[in-house]
Design brief:
The chain is an alpha/beta fold. It has helices at residues 17-20, 38-53, 94-105, 118-128, 139-143, 147-156, 165-177, 192-197, 210-215, 226-266, 274-294, 302-307, 310-314, 316-343, 346-367, 373-391, 393-398, 406-425; strands at residues 2-5, 8-15, 24-29, 32-35, 57-66, 80-88, 112-113, 137-138, 159-161, 183-186, 200-204, 218-220. The chain is rod-shaped and about 115 Å long. The chain has 18 helices and twelve strands.
């Protein structure tokens, strides 16, 4: 900064001590200026290290007399007089360390990219509980590494110090090309390139610069990293609800197909006609599936959601739920239909199979609701609609059904509830 004081022009400069001190030739002591000796430099470097280890951000301040020429190129930032050290304290919130632990429990590895002194970065990283191994990678070392080596460095340490915006972007790019999914959070203009390059860019806090907000995919309205943890929990709750809804739709449809094909192999015609299959989908897929997808899962703690990610929600767990629901649906419908063929009038057997097919899907939905009143209401409402469809003669005959008596409904109910309970016991 070039200014005017006491009738003369003065050039004032602040910056990283390791960059500023080599540019100084003198040291201000009170009202006098003494030469800056090697012993002075060693003393100042030790002081800077000590302050950085305590978590302070340390800047060196220097000045010199200058002409009124306005150009401030690097050649003029020389022959400075050291004025002092400026220490900035930005204490870590107690909840931040817990948030980092939660992220690691969720399978999210936190990496620090900062322009601070390595000692400052190491002190903050230790307080946050980041992986360090006692090592900090500097921007100068980043420049000498290949992309593969940069990605490998993250496995050794999670702390990078004295990095520039170019270094941050290089690290993010190397991690992405190594197959990692990368989210970057920051609030400054120097974070914008890395935020834009990341898979998920997050501008943190209302005081984020316009550049950071424009580059980001998500803008967090406060400055708390804990909010990111809350977002992870919320998103995984959404994935679980989606999994439950998809398993209901896909598993139920597979069970319907299996029952329809199987009954056609045992009889001259399938047990269900096209209108009945449409009615099954309307009763089981419309209201219950929509409610399950829109409601947050019950009986699931945040710790449980942190421990399972989207891969588990739509991978093995989804295949397991789809298989279990399909087998239970097909088995209940087959059991109800075959039993009704032995005990009920021939025309009612298909209706019993139809009622058992719908009933077992609704029973499984109610069982998996964990007492959610809205899901239970949707299941009971669909069950009431099923009863009305079958017993009301115009709709019953329109869908190819026959009204059932106590025996038919008893068979359908036992097949539905019994199969749903048995399937839950083997999950």
């Amino acid at each position: 900064m070039l200014g005017r004081t006491d009738g003369r022009h003065l050039l004032s400069v602040k910056g990283a001590p390791e960059i500023m001190l080599p540019r100084c030739i003198g040291r201000r002591r009170g009202d006098t200026v003494a030469p800056l000796t090697d012993a002075d430099l060693d003393e100042l470097r030790v002081t800077v290290e000590q302050l950085a280890e305590r978590g302070f951000r340390v800047l060196a301040v220097a000045e010199r007399a200058a002409s009124q020429r306005g150009e401030l190129d690097s050649d003029r930032i020389e022959r400075l007089v050291f004025a002092g050290l400026l220490c900035l304290a930005d204490p870590v919130r107690p909840t931040a360390a817990a948030a980092v632990r939660d992220l690691r429990a969720a399978g999210v590895d936190a990496v620090m990219l900062t322009g601070d002194h390595p000692r400052t970065a190491l002190g903050i990283a230790t307080e946050l509980g980041l992986r360090t191994g006692g090592r900090v990678i500097t921007g100068a070392e980043v420049e000498t590494r290949t992309e593969a080596e940069l990605a490998a460095l993250v496995a050794e340490t999670a702390v990078f110090a004295r990095v520039s915006p170019v270094h941050k972007a290089a690290i993010v790019g190397a991690l992405r090309r190594a197959g990692h999914i990368v989210a970057v959070t920051g609030d400054g203009a120097n974070d914008a390139p890395a935020i834009r390059l990341a898979d998920v860019g997050i501008a943190l806090g209302p005081r984020s610069t316009p550049a950071a907000k424009q580059a980001a995919d998500i803008v967090v309205t406060d400055e708390h990293i804990e909010t990111i943890v809350d977002a992870v929990i919320e998103s995984r709750a959404m994935w679980r609800s989606v999994r439950d809804s998809v398993s209901m739709l896909v598993g139920g449809n597979f069970g319907e197909i299996a029952f329809t094909v199987g009954s056609a192999l045992l009889d001259r015609s399938p047990a269900l006609n096209a209108r009945q299959l449409l009615a099954v989908n309307l009763l089981t897929d419309l209201l219950p599936a929509l409610v399950v997808a829109a409601r947050p899962p019950r009986g699931i703690t945040p710790a449980m959601l942190l421990s399972e990610g989207p891969d588990s929600a739509v991978g093995t767990a989804l295949r397991r739920d789809v298989t279990a629901r399909a087998m239970a649906t097909g088995a209940a419908a087959a059991a109800g239909w075959l039993t009704a063929r032995l005990l009920c009038p021939p025309r009612q057997a298909g209706t019993v199979g139809f009622a058992a097919l719908v009933g077992t899907q609704l029973a499984q939905t109610a069982r998996d609701s964990h007492g959610d009143p809205l899901v239970l209401a949707a299941a009971l409402g669909s069950a009431a609609a099923l009863f009305a469809l079958v017993q009301f003669r115009p709709t019953s005959y329109f869908f190819g059904c026959r009204p059932l008596g106590p025996l038919g409904w008893g068979i359908a109910t036992v097949a539905s509830v019994g199969t749903a309970v048995a399937a839950h016991g083997h999950r």
